[in-house]
Every structure is written in structure tokens, then in C-alpha cells.
């Protein structure tokens, strides 16, 4: 008897999974029983979530394999997005949406007596990022998959993501976020692609058999990097790209001495150190922390990812790197993965024996760097001694890169020693430091800022001398957000209204939203638009009531500021305005009042004292305002705890007013501003970051502008006198009196002294007092505009209609056209 042998790997022999609601029902039941061993219904949602998520994952698998095969077979150029952060949020809803299974999934779950919304809530957020920078990476990979660009995201699989924020007595309390505790349906471990990463040891120089000198890095302690892959589905296009996250693991090499001495448990336990590398995300946003473990994380990501790319290259091309730079591009998300520049040099020279010039040509034509901030406290510097101890061979290479770079500077500006000092990758001083941004500038062919103003300020300020040397390297790539998550998924009522009105093409071509503009003049459409917003506001009001015990009136204005808590973002200015409104109510100045619900949310870095004080002040002001019977529904204030991606999915659709009030010149771009605009909120904002471009797109009549410009901010500093400003403004004086008499700290006298001191300081870098009057006046215009609901709804519709530029689809097309130059690759046909 002969039987046909079917190779196990050929998926084309496996019957495809169907996509009807009955197919999904079968899948859910099968996984519930056979994958998770549940045989009767129970009250726990856990296995129902898992069975459903696995059923959806089944529908991604073939596309994932087909996409991978297409990328490998075509041997076309690929790009790699290297980022220490990917703030993904939840995956299930996005997968359902992008697979086009929305209706079938709802129906299937309904047949099983389950509710999609409830199941979605069971998934933990993948909070592997701090804020904008990490969320940007997540939106980028979504858009790359939708555009069918062969881009792989590389990051770290932190065991603990961004901490969970609890509010206790008005203060932030951090709790560990063990997001993997209940397992992660979406990741697949790929042990066969494990890489070893070296640390410590020392370097040796030696002559090869041809008498050529080389270096090697020896006596290192190695750590394994084990990849876990997450599927990134494109929107209804059959493409599923990959996010590859590295987990650290100990090698199996034992300390034989201890082992033989009978200390087996001790020698196994000692391996923990290696496993710590991917244990926890550093919770600092826009500030460096200088911890050794953080440098280990950075090199761990850089080394594992570059080795992974070189593994794939050498499998096809052997050790011929002549076309490597033409076919590969690494995009560095801020300076965090910048040690990649030295790591690629090291591997090309030490492992593949390329000469310096050849390796350098490849490296500097392969790396591209994105800068995310102008704040000096965020610029990464690592002490040379730390580099020397942890990564001695990398330090040698950085010194050599610097020496060759400085000789270029000397050629260009002979004798200008001061310039050489300023531009050197190594900062002199009591503790010598490696300036990571300069390493990135020297080692990359492209350097970009993330909004036009930010890119302009970079070449005028921070990087001006590098710009003088290589103007062709510098470019702007204005950020965006993905409209799949930030509109189609999170705002179902408006998405439906939009699609019913202008069709569905906006989901992959956001400029199509322009077609909504004429409907702003259609009273019937405005009414439907307002009804959608109202539904979203009720949904948020219910959650706010459950979380904070405060009832928001859904007819009142929803005035929202959610983002990391940072002095430059000026949540303090917002609170001063709230106190001003409270003061007006107490004075009886409430003619033509516009009722407001003010919502402030965001996490403070655990070591950032002022940011934590701002949270406490918000909560104390809220306590007073919300419990004063004179205030009633005229004003409600809450601090929304544990702001995260899934919270923003609820908040953005419900916003009337988006607060984007940073000190001009400090917010590189902002992306929260774009999510709000897309969802029909109006912006009150400074001329900062992408606010400028938002205002350009929507028109100044649909945007509430206030405050000093970036230029004025710098001009004012020398003569800034906040005490005179307060004195001359009776509203401001009242606000300060309330703060200073302890009205919001009755049981905690002196609690807000540091905040008061900051506002009154002539050296306040954020110039809070300078913009108070102009902010309060703009808020009055907002209040007046909201009274005229016809006008407001019109402006709201136009904000959505003109948000087309702020899709990451546009951003990715810009990166691709100017930097990556990839050809879209459709998945391999089955
Ligand atoms: C969009 C987003 C951010 C960035 O907000 P900004 O206002 O641009 O600072 C931060 N955190 C989360 C969870 C987000 O979704």
C-alpha cells in the first residue's frame, strides 16, 4: 500500500478557514473546547476572549506566511523600524477591523450570547511605550502594512510595560503592569532565530594570515535575544507584516566552578541578570535617565536586530555586502537605538573582515535618524567609562568614527578648535560623555524632525553646525496617526455617518474626508453629526462616573487634555484657567455661562516631582469644584486615572475641545492633537509642533489660537516678570490668591508652594504666566462659540474634513519617497 506523503509545511494543503459568522462560531467553540480545555459555559470571560482571539488569529496566519514569503522571494529593498517603544494598545479590535470581519464577528458572538465590546475589554493594553514616540511607532507599522511596504518593526518584549497609575488621596501611585500575566495570544516565539548579544570583556588586536590587523571582542558575558513575533495586519489587503520583539534569556553556559562545587541552584540563579534586560520599560518621557540597564537595553535591541537582518542577508548573498545599502534601511526612532551605527560597523569589520571605508560607506548609507525633541534634558549622553565597561569594542569604533569626522571638520574649518569641541561626538569634561545624537547625525544619511516647525528649529538651533556641513541630510516628516484605530475602530457612530455620506475610501485615503466639507452647511447633516458626538460623550460620561464618581452632563462642553504630565505641556495653565472659572462662578460672574466638563489625564514619570505635584493640584481643585453647590453643572473637573491607548479610544471621540497648550517651540509635533481633530474636536492651541499645520489645514477661523510664538518665547526670556503680569491682571491675581491662601490645600498647608514658586519665577522656562491672559481670552471665545451649536458643529465637521494630512499613511508615503525608497510588495498569491 502506498500513501501520498504530504509535507507538513505546505499550508496550501490545509483547507482555508472560512469567514462567515458560522465559521467564526465553529472556530470559537473548537478553541474553547480543544485549545483551552473548557467544556461548559462559565462566568469567566477569560477563555471566551482567548477562544475568540485565537479564532481571529487563525484568519491572519496564512496572510502572514504569504507576506513573509513574498518579502523573501522578491529580494527587494526592506526597511527596519528600530524603536525602544511600541505603544500598541489592544490588538483584537484592530485585527477584526483590518480583516473586514466586523459584522461577522459581532454576529457570531451574538449567536453565542456574547458581546464584542465586553470581550475586547478583557485584553490588556500592550503598553510598551511612554507616550507619543511609542504610539507613533505603532501607527507607523499599521500604515506600512496597509501600504504593503516591506517594513519590520524591531523592539523589546518588556515583561512589564508602562506602569499602571492609581490615584490615592489625589496622588499618583505606580503599580507594575504585568501585561503578560494572562498570556498573549498575539505573539509567536521564534526560538530558531535566537541571537547572542555580548557585554563586557575586552578587545584584542591581532594580525590575520595575510598580515592585516583586526580587532576582536573577547571574554564577554553573552545574553540570548529570543524573538517573539506579532502580526501586523494591513487594512483588507491580505498583507500581514511583522513586529519582532526581543526577550532576553540566559545562555546555557554554566559557571562550571560553582556548578562542580555543588552549587547548582546558585549557578542557575545567577543567570537572572541576563533575564533582567527585557524586564521593564523605563517610564521616562522626554528625559534621559542614564541608567546602566537602559544602555544594556539599547545595545540589546540594536545588536539582536542587526544580526537578524544580516542573517537574512547572508542566507541569500553570502558575505557579499556590495548591494546591502541599496536593499536595507534602518530607521532609528530617536537616539535610543543609535548604538546600531557602531554595531553594524563592528560586525562588518570584525565578523566579515570589511575594511573601514567599505563598512562605513555601507553603514552611513543604511541608517536614518528621526529626532523627537528639542528639550536639552532629553538628549542622550552616556559616560565614556560606562561604555568602556559594557561595550568596549563599540567605544573603540565610536572613537574612530569621531576622529575621522573631526578631521573632516578640520578640513572644512581649519583651525577652528572651538567648533571641533562643540561638534565632537565625545563631550569633554570631568566625566567624558558620548553624545548619542551626534553619533546619529554623523552615522546617518537622513535626519528628520517630526513637524515643520520642529525640523526648522533643529537646523537653526541644536543641529545648525551639522546642517552647515551636510544640508542635504536634513528633512521634515510631519507625524500622523492611523485613521483605522483612531477613527474607524474607536468612533463607530461617526465612521458610519461619514461612510454613509461620502463612501468608505477615507479608511485608506484620508484626504477623501474633504468631501465632508460641503455637508458642514447642511443642517440635517449637522444634526446627525451632533448626535454621534453626543452618543460618544454619553459613553465617556458613564465611564467617568464609574471611575471618578463624578457625573458629566453630556450637554456641557467636554474640554480635554490627555498626554504625559510635563511642565512644557502646561497642564498647569489649564488648571489656572479652571480656577479662574471657579472664581468667576463664586463671584457671580456667570451671565451667558457655557457649562464645561474639564478632563485632565496622563502619567508622570515616577521621579518627576513637579509633574506629580500637578496631578495632586488637579485632584485637589477637582475636589473643591465638584463639591461646591454654587458650582453645580456649570463646571466639573476630573483627573482621569491611568491614561493609556484604550482610554484614548474612548476619550478622543467624545471631545469637544482639544487642549494643545505647550510653550511654543517645545512640543516637537504632538499626535494627540491629530486624533482629536480627526474626531471632530476643535483645538485651543499655541503655534507649536503640528498645531501649526493643523491650523493651516483647517483655517484660522476654525482653530482657537493663543500665546507667544516660538520666536517671542526666546525674545521674552531676558525680561520676563511674572509677578508684574499677575499684579496687572485682576483675574490672574484672584487665581493666585486662591492658590496662595490654601483654598485647594486646606488640610495640607503649603502643599503647592513649589507650583506657586514656579509660576512666579522669572526663570520659569515654560512661561506659564506669559500666556495666561491670552489663554483665558481664547477660552472665552471657545465658550461663546460653543453657545452657537450650529456654528460649533460646522467647525467640528470642518476639523474632521481637513484632517486628511494627519494620517500616518501620508507620513509613511513621505518616508518611503524620500528615505526608504521601497517598492510595495503584495502578499504571495496562493
Ligand atoms: C496619542 C497618545 C499620546 C501622545 O499624545 P500627545 O498629546 O501628542 O503628547 C500619548 N499617550 C497615548 C496613550 C496616546 O494615545
TrEMBL record:
GO cellular component, one term: cytoplasm
PROSITE patterns: PHOSPHORYLASE
Keywords for the protein's UniProt record, in alphabetical order: Allosteric enzyme, Carbohydrate metabolism, Glycosyltransferase, Pyridoxal phosphate, Transferase
Gene3D superfamilies linked: Glycogen Phosphorylase B
Metal-binding as UniProt keyword: no
Cofactor(s) the record lists: pyridoxal 5'-phosphate
Taxonomic superkingdom: Bacteria
InterPro entries: Glycg_phsphrylas, Glyco_trans_35, Pyridoxal_P_attach_site
Single GO MF descriptor: pyridoxal phosphate binding
Catalytic activity: [(1->4)-alpha-D-glucosyl](n) + phosphate = [(1->4)-alpha-D-glucosyl](n-1) + alpha-D-glucose 1-phosphate
Chain ranges passing through the membrane: none
Protein name: Alpha-1,4 glucan phosphorylase
Assigned protein family: Belongs to the glycogen phosphorylase family.
Native source organism of the sequence: Mariprofundus ferrinatatus
Enzyme Commission identifier(s): 2.4.1.1
GO annotation, biological process: glycogen catabolic process
SUPFAM superfamilies: UDP-Glycosyltransferase/glycogen phosphorylase
Protein function: Phosphorylase is an important allosteric enzyme in carbohydrate metabolism. Enzymes from different sources differ in their regulatory mechanisms and in their natural substrates. However, all known phosphorylases share catalytic and structural properties.
Pfam families the record matches: Phosphorylase (PF00343)
Modified positions (N6-(pyridoxal phosphate)lysine) in chain numbering: 675
Amino acid at each position: 500500500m502506498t500513501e501520498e506523503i504530504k509535507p507538513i509545511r505546505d499550508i496550501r494543503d490545509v483547507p482555508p478557514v472560512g469567514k462567515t459568522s458560522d465559521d467564526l462560531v465553529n472556530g470559537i467553540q473548537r478553541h474553547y473546547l480543544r485549545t483551552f480545555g473548557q467544556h461548559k459555559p462559565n462566568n469567566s470571560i477569560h477563555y471566551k476572549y482567548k477562544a475568540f482571539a485565537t479564532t481571529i488569529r487563525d484568519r491572519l496566519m496564512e496572510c502572514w506566511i504569504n507576506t513573509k514569503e513574498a518579502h523573501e522571494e522578491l529580494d527587494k529593498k526592506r526597511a527596519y523600524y528600530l524603536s525602544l517603544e511600541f505603544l500598541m494598545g489592544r490588538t483584537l479590535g484592530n485585527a477584526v477591523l483590518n480583516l473586514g470581519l466586523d459584522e461577522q464577528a459581532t454576529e457570531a458572538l451574538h449567536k453565542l450570547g456574547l458581546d464584542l465590546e465586553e470581550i475586547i475589554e478583557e485584553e490588556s493594553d500592550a503598553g510598551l511605550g511612554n507616550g507619543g514616540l511609542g504610539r507613533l511607532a505603532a501607527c507607523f507599522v499599521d500604515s506600512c502594512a496597509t501600504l504593503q511596504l516591506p517594513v519590520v518593526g524591531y523592539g523589546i518584549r518588556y515583561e512589564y510595560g508602562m506602569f499602571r497609575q492609581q490615584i490615592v488621596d489625589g496622588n499618583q501611585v505606580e503599580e507594575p503592569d504585568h501585561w503578560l500575566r494572562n498570556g498573549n495570544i498575539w505573539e509567536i516565539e521564534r526560538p530558531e532565530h535566537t541571537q547572542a548579544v555580548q557585554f563586557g570583556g575586552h578587545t584584542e588586536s591581532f594580525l590575520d594570515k595575510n598580515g592585516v590587523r583586526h580587532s576582536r571582542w573577547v571574554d564577554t558575558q553573552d545574553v540570548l535575544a529570543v524573538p517573539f513575533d506579532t502580526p501586523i495586519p494591513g487594512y483588507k489587503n491580505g498583507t500581514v507584516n511583522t513586529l519582532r520583539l526581543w526577550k532576553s534569556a540566559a545562555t546555557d553556559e554554566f559557571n562550571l566552578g560553582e556548578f562542580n562545587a555543588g552549587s547548582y541552584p546558585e549557578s542557575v540563579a545567577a543567570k537572572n541578570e541576563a533575564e533582567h534586560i527585557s524586564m521593564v520599560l523605563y517610564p521616562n518621557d522626554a528625559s534621559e535617565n542614564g541608567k546602566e540597564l537602559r544602555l544594556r537595553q539599547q545595545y540589546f535591541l540594536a545588536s539582536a536586530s542587526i544580526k537578524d537582518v544580516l542573517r537574512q542577508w547572508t542566507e541569500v548573498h553570502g558575505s557579499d555586502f556590495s548591494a546591502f545599502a541599496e536593499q536595507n534601511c534602518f530607521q532609528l526612532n530617536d537616539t535610543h537605538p543609535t548604538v546600531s551605527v557602531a554595531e553594524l560597523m563592528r560586525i562588518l569589520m570584525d565578523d566579515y573582515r570589511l575594511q573601514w571605508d567599505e563598512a562605513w560607506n555601507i553603514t552611513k548609507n543604511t541608517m536614518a535618524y528621526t529626532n523627537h525633541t528639542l528639550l536639552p534634558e532629553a538628549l542622550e549622553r552616556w559616560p565614556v567609562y560606562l561604555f568602556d565597561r559594557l561595550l568596549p569594542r563599540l567605544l573603540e569604533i565610536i572613537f574612530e568614527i569621531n576622529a575621522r569626522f573631526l578631521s573632516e571638520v578640520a578640513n572644512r574649518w581649519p583651525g577652528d578648535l572651538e567648533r571641533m569641541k562643540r561638534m565632537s561626538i565625545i563631550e569633554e569634561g570631568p566625566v567624558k560623555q558620548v553624545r548619542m545624537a551626534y553619533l546619529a547625525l554623523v552615522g546617518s544619511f537622513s535626519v528628520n524632525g517630526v513637524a515643520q516647525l520642529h525640523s526648522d528649529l533643529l537646523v537653526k538651533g541644536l543641529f545648525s553646525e551639522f546642517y552647515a556641513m551636510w544640508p542635504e541630510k536634513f528633512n521634515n516628516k510631519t507625524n500622523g496617526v492611523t485613521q483605522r484605530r483612531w477613527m474607524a475602530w474607536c468612533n463607530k457612530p461617526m465612521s458610519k455617518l461619514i461612510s454613509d455620506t461620502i463612501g468608505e475610501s477615507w479608511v485608506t485615503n484620508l484626504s477623501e474626508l474633504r468631501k465632508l466639507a460641503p455637508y458642514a452647511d447642511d443642517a440635517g447633516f449637522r444634526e446627525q453629526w451632533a448626535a454621534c458626538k453626543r452618543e460618544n460623550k454619553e459613553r465617556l460620561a458613564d465611564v467617568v462616573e464609574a471611575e471618578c464618581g463624578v457625573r458629566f452632563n453630556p450637554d456641557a462642553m467636554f474640554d480635554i487634555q490627555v498626554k504625559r504630565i510635563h511642565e512644557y505641556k502646561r497642564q498647569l495653565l489649564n488648571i489656572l484657567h479652571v480656577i479662574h472659572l471657579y472664581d468667576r462662578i463664586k463671584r457671580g460672574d456667570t451671565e451667558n455661562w457655557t457649562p464645561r466638563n474639564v478632563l485632565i489625564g496622563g502619567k508622570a514619570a515616577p521621579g518627576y516631582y513637579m509633574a506629580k505635584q500637578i496631578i495632586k493640584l488637579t485632584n485637589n481643585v477637582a475636589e473643591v469644584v465638584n463639591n461646591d453647590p454654587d458650582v453645580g453643572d456649570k463646571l466639573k473637573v476630573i483627573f482621569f486615572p491611568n491614561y493609556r491607548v484604550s482610554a484614548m479610544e474612548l476619550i478622543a471621540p467624545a471631545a469637544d475641545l482639544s487642549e494643545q497648550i505647550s510653550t511654543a517651540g517645545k512640543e516637537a509635533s504632538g499626535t494627540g492633537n491629530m486624533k482629536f481633530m480627526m474626531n471632530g474636536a476643535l483645538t485651543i492651541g499655541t503655534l507649536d509642533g503640528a498645531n501649526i499645520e493643523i491650523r493651516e489645514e483647517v483655517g484660522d477661523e476654525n482653530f482657537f489660537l493663543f500665546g507667544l510664538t516660538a520666536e517671542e518665547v526666546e525674545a521674552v526670556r531676558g525680561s520676563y516678570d511674572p509677578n508684574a503680569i499677575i499684579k496687572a491682571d485682576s483675574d490672574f491675581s484672584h487665581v493666585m490668591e486662591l492658590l496662595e491662601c490654601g483654598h485647594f490645600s486646606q488640610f495640607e498647608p503649603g502643599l503647592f508652594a513649589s507650583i506657586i514658586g514656579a509660576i512666579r519665577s522669572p526663570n520659569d522656562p515654560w512661561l506659564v504666566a506669559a500666556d495666561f491672559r491670552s489663554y483665558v481670552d481664547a477660552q472665552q471665545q471657545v465658550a461663546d462659540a460653543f453657545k452657537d451649536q450650529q456654528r460649533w458643529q460646522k467647525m467640528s465637521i470642518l476639523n474632521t474634513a481637513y484632517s486628511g494630512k494627519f494620517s500616518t499613511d501620508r507620513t509613511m508615503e513621505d518616508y518611503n519617497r524620500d528615505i526608504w525608497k521601497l517598492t510595495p510588495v503584495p502578499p504571495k498569491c496562493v
